Amino acid sequence: MNLRSTVTRILSVALGLTLLILTGCSSGINVNYDYDTTTNFGAYKTFDWAPDPADATQAMDAAQATTRNGLLSNRIKASVNSEMATKGFTLSSDNPDLLTVFHLGVQDKIQVSDWGYGYSGHYWGGYGGYYGGTGMDVYQYQEGRMIIDIVDAKTQELVWRGTGEGVVGSGQKSPEEVQYKIDTVVNQIMANFPPPLN
Question: Which domain holds residue 68?
Answer without folding.
Answer: 3-110+139-192
